TrEMBL record:
<feature type="domain" description="SH2">
    <location>
        <begin position="589"/>
        <end position="690"/>
    </location>
</feature>
<dbReference type="Pfam" id="PF00388">
    <property type="entry name" value="PI-PLC-X"/>
</dbReference>
<dbReference type="GO" id="GO:0032868">
    <property type="term" value="P:response to insulin"/>
</dbReference>
<keyword id="KW-0728">SH3 domain</keyword>
<dbReference type="InterPro" id="IPR001711">
    <property type="entry name" value="PLipase_C_Pinositol-sp_Y"/>
</dbReference>
<dbReference type="InterPro" id="IPR011993">
    <property type="entry name" value="PH-like_dom_sf"/>
</dbReference>
<keyword id="KW-0807">Transducer</keyword>
<dbReference type="Pfam" id="PF00387">
    <property type="entry name" value="PI-PLC-Y"/>
</dbReference>
<dbReference type="InterPro" id="IPR035023">
    <property type="entry name" value="PLC-gamma_C-SH2"/>
</dbReference>
<dbReference type="InterPro" id="IPR016279">
    <property type="entry name" value="PLC-gamma"/>
</dbReference>
<dbReference type="InterPro" id="IPR001849">
    <property type="entry name" value="PH_domain"/>
</dbReference>
<dbReference type="InterPro" id="IPR057061">
    <property type="entry name" value="PLCG_EF-hand_2"/>
</dbReference>
<dbReference type="GO" id="GO:0045677">
    <property type="term" value="P:negative regulation of R7 cell differentiation"/>
</dbReference>
<comment type="function">
    <text>Mediates the production of the second messenger molecules diacylglycerol (DAG) and inositol 1,4,5-trisphosphate (IP3). Plays an important role in the regulation of intracellular signaling cascades.</text>
</comment>
<feature type="domain" description="PH">
    <location>
        <begin position="20"/>
        <end position="138"/>
    </location>
</feature>
<feature type="domain" description="PI-PLC Y-box">
    <location>
        <begin position="980"/>
        <end position="1092"/>
    </location>
</feature>
<dbReference type="GO" id="GO:0045873">
    <property type="term" value="P:negative regulation of sevenless signaling pathway"/>
</dbReference>
Amino acid sequence: MSCFSAMSAPLLGEMEQTIGMLERGTIVTKLYGKQRRPDRRHLMLIRETRQLLWATVATQTPRTDYEGAIQLREIREIRVGKHSKEFRLFADDCQRFESSKCFVILHGNHFKLKSFSVVALSEIEADNWVRGLRYMVKDTLGAPYPLQIDRWLRREYYQIENVNTHSAKATEQSPAQVTIKDFKLFLAGVSCKMTTGKFMEHFTEDVRRKHDLKFDDFSRLYQKLLLPNGFASVLSGSGVANFPYSEDQQVVRPAELKQFLETEQRDVSASEISSAAIASFIRDFVQDVERDVQEPYLTFPEFVDFLFSKQNDLWNSKYDQVFMDMNLPLSSYWIASSHNTYLTGDQFSSESSCEAYARALRMGCRCIELDCWNGPDNLPYIFHGHTITSKIKFMDVIKTIKDHAFTSSEYPVILSIEQNCSLEQQRNMAQALIEVFGDMLLTQPCDRNEQHLPSPYQLRRKIILKHKKLPQFDDIANGISSTGSLGHRSSLGGAGGGAHGENDGENVRKVFKEGLLYFKDPVDKSWNLYQFVLTHQELIYSSEINESRNGNSEDDDFGLSSSCSLNSNMQQKQKDTSANDELHFGENWFHGKLEGGRKEADDLLKKYKHFGDGTFLVRESATFVGDYSLSFWRRNRPNHCRIKLKHENGSIKYYLVENFVFDSLYSLIVYYRKNMLRSSEFSIILKEPVPQPKKHEDQEWFHPNTTKEQAEQGLYRLEIGSFLVRPSVQSINAFVISFTINRKIKHCRIMQEGRLYGIDTMNFESLVSLINYYTRNPLYRNVKLSHPVSQELLRQALAEAAQGDHSGGHDDNGASNYMGSNLEENVTCKALYSYKANKPDELSFPKHAIITNVQRDNSMWWIGDYGGMIKKHLPANYVKVIDSTTEDYNSLNEEGTDGRTDSIEIFGAVASLFESNDPGIIFKLQIQTPTMQNPFVIGFDNQETAYEWIKAIQEAALIASQLASERRKKERTARVAKEMSDLIIYFRSVPFREHSWIFQEMSSFPETKAEKQFFQQNTQLFLSYHRNQISRVYPKGQRLDSSNFNPMPFWNVGSQMIALNYQTGDKAMQLNQAKFRNNGQCGYILKPSFMKSDSFNPNNPLCDGLSEVKVSIRLIAARHLFRGGKSNNPQIVVELIGASFDTGVKYRTKVNENGFNPVWNESCEFNVRNPQFAILRFEVQDEDMFAETHFIAQACYPLTCIRQGYRSVILRNKFSEELELSSLLINIKIANVTAP
């Protein structure tokens, strides 16, 4: 029961000490805006009023003479570091401040938050402030209602006291007082109206004589006035004078409270709550030490306080969790979406800000917009084009997005990019996106055989781009003969190696030539056989073939002649690996051939029986070879079904039930995970798969907690082939093999996809089988994993290494320690990306450029030579070392690839052949491209082969030139760079067409066009379209004030992305916030199942699947309905927004001349025929002397997310931020309407 959720725990131990320090205060440096330089201030926490105050250092009484204050309840975020506009304004001055001493507080009640930027004297002080404030903010927001009133009253009382202290009347002889007159003015400010005579009746003679109010008197009088006379009878309704849940009409005891919860509140869980739990709740709510007794009680005013409190909210807190099915295609959900996310105000002259992105994302928005225009440094600006809105840098925006994308929701964030940039800047955008987002950026489809959009669950913590995509390239190379198709691609290519969308194979689709050729190793200068593959885009070469083709492998079956092809070599590897392309093979629910057969399946199901009925796995049948078995948990025991196979028209079909067959095992399981599997004995839906066994965890070589640094230090002194396996710190689904080779340490990443573990193109069913394979076959340069290192052996090696470091850091041979490699040595580097110099002392270079004489240090900038430029600075993260005595050309590392495969672009290549004097090499083929400083040389021991290769390279270069020309033409026509296009996987922006829909594509509509298309011309077409396709609707261009349109009709027709101006606090945004508050505010709301039906019509109240309800509301009373400190005359408007036949104002109360504690006790009833679409909205309006109404507050609730009974409607401002202590009290009942 939500009202019995745990109250905030008392402050204890270390945290209490921290809060005590904050109350005493510390000296900090506060940063101001443009007009004022940073200055030292005394910062302190006031616990009793929950405020943060700051004052000048010279102030003797900072609690009264303070410069400014922040209410803790208004704090939205506390950041560590220099992440605010104040730090950016004074960037030069702030360089002397360490980031760990800086923190920023973002606070306010509007969309645009205020920032409070501070530098503490020490890192410890900064940490204390951050931890202490985060704790106190959480404690403040969770405080019981009586405490909230007490803190608010203290704040108001002290404010009056401070004003009097600073007045001329307050002297040393006449100390400041809070008088009766002050109290009357205070009441007028909170819209409590009464005559002076009636007002004075509330004071004793003693108080009138002294004319001085202490806080206890101030609080007592306020509480007395807050409860209207005769409220018990109002609460009871029906003209009953007594409140039925208080025997003596004075207190409500635990048993009476329990009865109230069961009867009036219809709380089904109340009957299960013990009397002790209710008593504990009362004690926590009252927070009175004197009443901390065995049988506590609530006084009637306290009971009314409870009814008005947030703990009695109309909102049902169970919807604060993600509870909807998140495994359906994205088109099945409404998605919280923003328009012109960067703006903080109007569309013409307002400020663009990175903070607007942070704010929207933290509010649960999942689709944000980036308007990109050409900017400096070859990277875009983001702003509203052709206006005077301010500009922000693209790089700053995407870094902000990375920091805040998944703070409030783990489900995918969609970047809707409005592209106005040149092709060059688009290429740099693509590179920046890859570098900043890394693994977060979706660059591959979730499933190569998918027939619909993936689910939010599949795309958790992924960033997806919405953008135009280039049309597919025509295959110019069709006329060129080829030797086959390449089964893999280059594993190198920097951060963009995997970012080629569905065209991964585009660069290697046509294989013109392949074979074993000689290549001189840059490290040992020897000629070694490499596997070469020539495509129409690049020449790929791999050293891994050399490792197994020179007779070095001890496995005779693996040794191959030098004339075999890459494809046949891959077939040999498949004997040991799991290169199975069946769809089910990589799925977690497929367990292959279990060694223990049926018994092992039983054991696994029993181990995971807590998953419940429907827990399952699929395995190869031990009884019927070639068939499969479905094992599942049902009614507390394992069950097993044979999945049968049969051949039809040359293909294999799978089935469990006769005459109900599937094309694949994958399709069969997917079907029965959504539909009931029925037999004569049982019916069940397959639910959670049994997790794959982690047999590697029992192996001595597996180190679950070893870091990269520990692995390097421990392995350094061990013999070649010593190895261990550890989890990757860069990715959750990855492991790393760390091993020794020639007194160096290599790291090879293993990627886990589903149940398979892969290195490059090779996949294994378990980590154990992968390691076993590489104990028999070389992993790198003839080195096998021959000596497993246990955790104990590693500890011994680390201890020896530590002792060796202490004695000087040199081994017995005088070699320097690996970890202290010589950075002063000049090396050769290869450019991973192109770079254009921004300053005269910087180096410009293209991708793949060879940069020589590179001087490294520990900074992010190195110095090197390229293209006639000598000793110029270059960014270290743009290059990789390819030649030095301390690093191998083919180095393995966690951050990149395994290093055994590399490539050169063939575009613009000039090839020449000449004789060689090197032993065993009769011809050398030299290749020079425009991006190379030094030529690339291949060796041949056969003249005929050399002539064949130079001819093939010349033909491939011609094709590459034609392809490049075609690409440039298509880029110019579409105004989309290929690098940007390659990153677009699902949300491909296309103009709407009425047929031939492709699920990866989507269309956007301005509101005016959408209204015409969705509601007037093609309603049924768009209802069908939205079942599988996604659309986005955005405000028309004429809305210069950033106002919003009504999103409800567009949601009702199935449109998923209704992009609104989040910075505008209007009715549309209030509805948006209410709708997406559901499902844990994760930004994704599952559309009702009846919308999938072909017969569904949003304007037809008789559609199948609708459940009509009757809503009865009694508007009883309210508290704290004041507007800007003015006396007002509030009225309540009850409105329902939903289906067209349900929408409308349902009731409007009479105007009440009391904004302090008005009582209405008015009722209304109405039917709702489509409650799934309905949002119930309460608006409080103030009627002025001209009978014009003004907004005071509002509250919106999805009708399906509310609780019945006596409930508190927590009122909010126009930005949907809660107003302090402001609420309505209603009694609401919802009943199903039975069809006649």
